[in-house]
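dude i think i finally got it to work??
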Amino acid sequence: MLNQLDMLSYLPTLPASQGVAVIDIGGNSFELAILTPEPRLLTHKFNLISGKSIGEWGYLSTEAIEVFEKALIEASTLLKQHGVETDHILAVATSGLRDAANGQDMVSLAHQYQIPLKIISGLEESELIYTSVLEALPEARPQSNLVIEIGGGSTELVPGEGSNHPTKALIQVYPWGTGRFGLKDLFDIEKRQWVQDSVQQALSESIPSDSKSLYQSRHTYIKSATEWKGLQQYSLDSGHSDLLSNGLSLDAIQSILTTNGLEKLQKQWRLDYPHLCKLVTKLCILSILLSELQINQIGFGPDWGLKFGLLKQLLSQLAASQNNG
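look at this
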């Protein structure tokens, strides 16, 4: 799994002596990446509770707004410290604000801190996810691929050909993720079943049986996240180093989701309990996605989030502007 440092070797050259920055705001996190002229890549992540709030109320609560504004203040301070000007910032919000009744109010709040935030569509988000995951996977460039992203506020299925060409007509964006389905008790069998039933119903309504073949026979990847790293560490600690050696299989997911599997996972888990609950929520969602689409194995993409796609887009825009100037 490629890490943040590897990202630099895949990015275009910084076209100016001034640093640039990108911001990705989702349902559960606010991620900032600053690329300095040296170049160095500095990343910061602030936790949010927007996804949970939107899942329960349809908007950001007073508490969620306070958490969001605190992240804005800290990000604004870091941007000033590194001398990043407003016109060298690309800041986007995905489902975390897209689905919130007061999402545009949060955009206005960000602008008060000189952060030019915009809310992007599910299609734009999907294209960025596809680019961010597959750009650094040479084996993916000549083949048919499917990228799955399970976020805080949405889940995306993004098929495509090669590393830069998602098939727009087949992209599926679902308005649910770990924020809506979040488990609080790993052993709540009824809640886990509800998550899986909800995903199954959504798939049956959006992808007819005779269209499922369009998503099959593809090399399938999932965007890396903290929870998947925790699962990798668990596989090593538990003596099952082969669990994720070639990605994650449907059989392995179903084994983990048994009572015995969850007890073992909880015993060996190194991260905090909320991350463990988030992982199990993702596994519940993923088990149905893979089962319904008849996919037996899924690989892990690089640990870049949307940052790579955003940085590549921003650097290309700045280079074009410089050449035109």
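The mean pLDDT is 86.
im so relieved honestly
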